[in-house]
Specification:
Blueprint: H1 3-20, E1 26-28, E2 32-34, E3 38-39, E4 43-51, E5 53-61, H2 63-74, H3 83-106, E6 111-113, E7 117-120, E8 125-126, E9 138-145, E10 148-158
């Protein structure tokens, strides 16, 4: 996985979170690689990538973090992970990936996005890319905010 693909997602996630959380502090935790199926914390917004590269970006967080972020973005306290909260987290994923892909297009990379798919539940995990048996390493970048931790999970490979 080339760092040129990953940096725009990490940088944009950091900047957009800081912006939508009204200037709240956002700290980047230690990144790590994961190559096997991995559990999701509770709420995961997944965006697929296709074109010169294939893969996916997942924004993973707990229900509490998702509610805190949705509350801040909507400027009202949200206590249930309802349709409005789901739409808000999906839109956050859309904003981040859209801006990251724009940066990548400017660098000459060509690929498209799928609309965000939102998954919420207990005991879920993200499996290997594209249902293949070969594992594609995912780079996990934890972003710690006043609202909680959001893990940006990027798994991208060049098309063969």
């Amino acid at each position: 996985m080339r760092v040129e693909y990953i940096n725009p997602f990490v940088e944009t996630s950091y900047r957009v979170l800081k912006e939508v959380l009204d200037g709240a502090e956002v700290k980047r935790g230690d990144l790590y690689l994961k190559s096997t199926a991995m559990p999701v914390m509770g709420v995961a917004a997944l965006v697929g990538l296709a074109g010169d590269v294939e893969g996916r970006v997942v924004f993973d967080m707990t229900f509490e973090t998702a509610l805190n972020i949705a509350s801040k973005m909507n400027m009202e306290t949200m206590t249930k992970f309802d349709d409005m909260a789901k739409a808000t987290i999906s839109e956050l994923a859309n904003i981040i990936t859209g801006q990251a892909v724009t940066k990548l297009h400017e660098l000459g990379f060509k690929f498209d996005l799928t609309p965000p798919a939102l998954f919420a539940g207990e005991n879920m995990e993200i499996a290997a890319l594209g249902g293949t048996s070969e594992n594609v390493e995912a780079l996990i970048v934890p972003l710690v905010t006043d609202c909680g931790k959001v893990e940006v999970n990027v798994a991208i490979r060049e098309r063969a």
